[in-house]
Write a structure and sequence with these properties.
The chain is an all-alpha fold and 156 residues long. The chain is extended. The C terminus is likely disordered.
């Protein structure tokens, strides 16, 4: 064995606990994405990508501190989901869908355009509509300018 292989082998033996934790986290993310993502996708309004999103006024009776705390929590959860989705691009799990759900929670300029760009991918739209069909929910509606080049209905 060459020197690099010996160093790698020694590092792996020295970090066996870390490797077990990474493996367990990978399995947890995979199972969690299989359970949570279909629930979230099924709960989306069918016109989520079609309608204009303005800040809802349903929380106007809450104190400013509660609204800010809720906004902070929602954005932190979104960031965690985006990071988890990025990890799932190389680990088991539904990476792009997890990133899309995370992006939907985060507030930032250009969010709608990025969401629509992701959902415009035929494989993403097909997966989301498959999850919605399993939950007996109507297919997602896209704005006419955001329709994928190949219709999902044509592939069925």
């Amino acid at each position: 064995m060459d020197h690099a292989a010996l160093l790698m082998s020694a590092w792996l033996r020295g970090h066996e606990t870390l490797l077990w934790w990474v493996g367990a986290l990978s399995i947890l993310m995979f199972v969690g994405s299989l359970v949570a993502l279909p629930l979230v996708v099924a709960r989306l309004p069918a016109d989520y990508f079609r309608r204009d999103h303005h800040h809802a006024t349903r929380h106007h009776k809450q104190s400013t501190a509660l609204r800010l705390l809720g906004l902070l929590g929602k954005n932190l959860l979104g960031i965690v989901l985006v990071c988890t989705g990025v990890a799932m691009l190389v680990l088991p799990g539904q990476g792009i869908l997890t990133m899309l759900i995370g992006l939907m929670l985060i507030n930032f300029p250009g969010k709608r355009a990025l969401e629509q760009r992701l959902v415009r991918q035929a494989t993403v739209l097909r997966a989301m509509n498959w999850m919605r069909a399993k939950a007996h929910q109507p297919a997602l509606e896209l704005p006419t300018s955001a329709l994928p080049s190949t219709s999902v209905r044509e592939k069925r």
